[in-house]
Specification:
CATH superfamily: HesB-like domain
Order of helices and strands: EHEEEEHEEEE
Number of strands: 9
Distance between the termini: 22 Å
CATH topology: Hypothetical Protein Aq_1857, Chain: A
Strand order of the largest sheet: 4-5-2-3-9-8
Oligomer: single chain
Radius of gyration: 14 Å
Number of domains: 1
Number of helices: 2
Largest sheet: 6 strands, mixed
Shape: globular
CATH architecture: Sandwich
Length: 110
């Protein structure tokens, strides 16, 4: 079972963004957990072309999502989704390891 489950809508959005920049075959979406934010930890998403030996590479819907070894400890069992509605738009991470989160939803505590 992969560290992170990637929904169809998230994979489609990643594919759209990478394809628009001509990077679909060379890059993946890197998910990181870094220190910061009101609750101590925050998510960081960005496109990356470098994958290390210790990285977990998840293939889903024709795209790659990459998680480093340290971040995998915090992201294990999480779901990466993409939401586009009247109330919210963007990538959404549902993380069962988050014990608390701040009011703005940008950071969490584990």
């Amino acid at each position: 079972m992969p560290v992170v489950e990637v929904t169809e809508s998230a994979a489609a959005r990643i594919k759209q963004l990478l394809d628009r920049e001509g990077r679909l075959t060379t890059h993946g979406l890197r998910m990181k957990v870094v220190g910061g934010g009101c609750s101590g930890l925050q998510y960081q998403l960005g496109f990356d072309e470098r994958f290390g030996d210790a990285d977990e590479v998840i293939e889903a819907g024709g795209v790659r999502v990459v998680v480093d070894e340290k971040s995998a400890l915090y992201l294990s069992g999480s779901v990466l989704d993409y939401v586009d509605s009247l109330q919210e738009s963007g990538f959404k991470i549902v993380n069962p390891n988050a014990k608390s989160s701040c009011g703005c939803g940008q950071s969490f505590g584990a």
